[in-house]
Amino acid sequence: RRMGSEGLSKQQIKAKRLSSLGSFHVLDDDDVLEVLEWLDAKSLLQMSLVSHVFHLFAEEDDQLWKPLCVRQWTKGKFADFTFKGSWKRTCLLPKDKKVDRPIPRLKISDFYSPLLYTRWYRRNTPIEWFKPSEIAQVDKRSKLSLQQFIDEYEKPNKPVVITDAMDNWKAKKEWKMESFMAKYADTYFKTNGSNDEGHCYRLKFKDYVAYMRGSLDEKPIYLFDNKFLERAPSMVDEYEVPKYFKEDLFDHMTDEDRPDYRWFLAGPPRSGSPLHQDPHRTSAWNALIEGRKRWILYPPETIPPGVDEDLIDSEYYASPDVIRWFIEVYPHLKDGQRPMEVVQEPGELIFVPSGWWHQVLNLTETIAVTQNFCSPRNFKYVYGDLRSRKQSSLRRQFHAATYPVYPHLYQAYETALKDKDDSESESESFSSSVESTDDTDD
């Protein structure tokens, strides 16, 4: 820990590294961790017994044990572990063994690692520090008619929180954490955690809740299931698409052809999604049943601070993880860089328009459901994205399914595209004429 580190000289730290790490002392801290990542569970355990400093690297940074635990307890796409307060204990102890005693911590007064401290800090920063005091830049509305929603928010491509869109859902009661646990405890749901093959694994909901309530991961595993209605068919009767989003052009495609579009979500405090734009420039709605979410939003034309522009086209998440962004980027934002923000409360639904950058931090345990969609209002963005990217197969399938129903949308799109090309051509001709005149004047 950092405690007392200010009083240590470089010579003291260097001497401790030499005596505790041996030949490894020449490596940077991140290189030491990378070497330890190559080890199996038995070898990592042995390395933790070599010295106090190796113990710090192997024990305090519990993330080294996470992939070993997943490897130990995962068969194919199914994980079968009960979290026991640390990934090390979960990896090494039998699944049915209960452990109540606290995890012992060593106090080492003559060693300091900026890397280990930073990672520890991000894991242990109280979630209360991330709860904003005053943020109300996104409208919160109720009793909106469909036409009001279209005119005031969907057509202008403007976010809004709707406070009464899910008042009649059974899910408002059935999906509360304890009620959901009672009904779906043994149902496997897909997480965003991956196994050695890179496939997302599934956990029983009761095992996920044990992890959610016992872990202090910097990047918590998030329950993020796009096939939840196949795993728990009764959930289909417990919610419905609100009236504002029922017209979805993707509904005209077969389930096999259309892209993933709906997800059941659950996560602990500190979990969430880094800054990103939704696929194919679709719009989305997110309905929150349990907990509180803090949303960060930037309009489509703005590259948010922290996003690596060179990675936008190759990486879905081109920004730091959520907690790291709030700690390292958010405090340094200037006035012109600040996002729109809103805290979503239980029973509220947020509309995220096409192309908007957004980031979500769960402030408490949360349960939500979300869907992406293409309506006649955002068709021009979705179809434009399908045309501009290497999506030829999806574009053909989308066109074949929707053109017979919405030929006017395609005609309007092509007309707008032609007008844009003509305008750009006239602008280029004018520029060439001006340049030619300038040459003559010279």
Walk me through the structure.
There is one protein chain. It is built from 16 helices and 15 strands. The longest helix has 35 residues, at 407-441. The protein has a seven-stranded mixed beta sheet with strand order 3-4-13-10-15-8-7. A four-stranded antiparallel beta sheet has the order 9-14-11-12, covered by helices on one side. Mean pLDDT is 89; it is low at 433-438. β3, α8 and β4 form a beta-alpha-beta unit. It is globular, with a radius of gyration of 26 Å. The chain is an alpha+beta fold. The N and C termini lie far apart (70 Å).
List keywords for this structure.
alpha+beta, 4-stranded antiparallel β-sheet, 15 strands
The number of helical runs is 16
Instruction: Walk across the major sheet and give the strand order.
Output: 3-4-13-10-15-8-7
Gyration radius over CA: 26 Å
Shape: globular
**Rounded mean pLDDT score:** 89
Low-confidence runs of at least 5 consecutive residues: 433-438
Major beta-sheet overview: 7 strands, mixed
- Number of β-strand runs: 15
Structural class per helix/strand content?
Answer: alpha+beta
Strand content: 15-25%
Share in helix? 25-40%
Q: Span from first to last CA?
A: 70 Å
